[in-house]
Design brief:
The chain is α/β, with parallel strands linked by helices. 36% of the residues lie in helices and 23% in strands. It contains 10 helices and 15 strands. A 6-stranded parallel beta sheet has the order 6-5-2-10-11-12, sandwiched between helices. Strands 3, 4, 7, 8 and 9 form a 5-stranded mixed beta sheet that branches. Helix 5 (183-194) links the parallel strand 10 and strand 11 (199-203).
């Protein structure tokens, strides 16, 4: 049997958003920089040295990506504090990322900097012409191609243990193959969860390796973790429910599975609850929507919301960010209220 959660009142939303204002957050995970280069191709002239038209950049924008963007989402929600635990390099991307985080009020006290590590970045050249069509070139990616050095790994776990008693929730953003979330870090996270710490994990490739925490996969990640023989593109609701229940049993904790514009599925102690959402009309940009959902979901849980209530708030936050084109946007309390009014009045 599947229950359906249809939401709460506007006054309850206001109360929850107010309670989030007292929540203290720690986030451990992969902190990336998103770079947008807007090129006006009407200004381009054929190069004299090569048979190419260069991209004349007229605007450069920086924002957080992966765990850094989730930290920015927490800050935009108005939490009491958010501290990011991560590792960056000693490069131009590290400088820009720290500026972005600090400008938003994210604490960078627990971020390690090492010449032996690369600051991950996703650089996106976007071409503008005479029409309104914008063409995005292939990304230019900076990533680490080797495991986290042992000394950085030890230092990250020390910082995690140090901050854990000081916060209400720990969010984990595990996105990169060679990132800051190693097997030893995962076991440290599990140890804190067993001790009673509220921990929510978002992991792109390793969601099934965590124990005793709340996990937040999308439907593709959940299916690949427990039924890798299935093609996620051909799965239906029954497949989603089965995968979410299997994952909950494997992890030994609740599962919140997001399913895009269809909402989310909450599984706890074998019980399944659907949290539907209303699609947002085009134009949309889904980059960063999962980060906004993660932040709202974690903050709401820490503020005392149930799983379905927290997921409902996550749906609202994600719906706000998909309307922000060409940027990994955030969702403020006022924007979330506005989205609530649109779909409920």
């Amino acid at each position: 049997m599947v229950d359906t959660y249809t939401g709460f009142s506007f006054s309850s939303l206001e109360h929850l958003l107010g309670a989030i204002g007292s929540v203290k957050v720690a986030l451990i995970g992969d902190a990336c920089l998103d770079v947008y280069w807007e090129a006006d191709m009407t200004l381009s002239e054929l190069s004299r040295e090569t048979p190419h038209f260069p991209l004349p950049v007229v605007e450069e924008r920086m924002s957080g990506g992966a765990g850094a963007n989730t930290a920015l989402d927490f800050a935009a929600l108005g939490v009491a504090s958010v501290s990011l635990i991560s590792a960056i390099g000693k490069d131009w991307r590290a400088d820009q990322l720290l500026k972005v985080l600090q400008a938003a009020g994210v604490s960078t006290e627990y971020i390690l900097s090492s010449p032996d590590w690369v600051t991950p970045a996703y650089c996106k050249p976007r071409r503008h012409g005479i029409s309104e069509v914008v063409y995005e070139d292939p990304r230019i990616d900076f990533e680490n191609r080797k495991p986290l050095p042992d000394d950085i790994e030890v230092a990250l776990m020390e910082r995690l243990r140090e901050i854990a008693p000081l916060v209400d929730v720990i969010a984990v953003v595990d996105q990169l193959k060679y990132g800051v979330i190693t097997e030893k870090v995962i076991r440290e996270i599990e140890h804190l969860a067993v001790q009673g710490k509220l921990i929510v994990v978002d992991s792109r490739m390793r969601i099934g390796r965590y124990k005793s925490v709340i996990v937040k996969p999308n439907e593709v990640e959940a299916i690949r973790a427990v039924e890798p023989q299935l093609d996620p593109r051909r799965c239906n609701k029954e497949d989603w429910y089965r995968a979410a229940k299997k994952l909950a049993e494997q992890v030994g904790g609740p599962v919140l599975m997001t399913v895009g514009d269809k909402g989310a599925v909450w599984v706890e102690k074998g019980a399944i609850t659907e949290i539907p959402t209303k699609p947002v009309g085009p134009p949309i940009d889904i980059v960063g929507a999962g980060d906004a959902f993660m932040a709202a979901f974690c903050a709401a849980l820490a503020a005392g919301a149930t799983g379905p209530e927290a997921a409902y708030l996550g749906n609202l936050a994600a719906a706000v960010t998909v309307r922000k084109i060409g940027i990994t946007g955030t969702a403020s309390p006022e924007e979330i209220k506005q989205r609530y009014m649109e779909v409920n009045l």
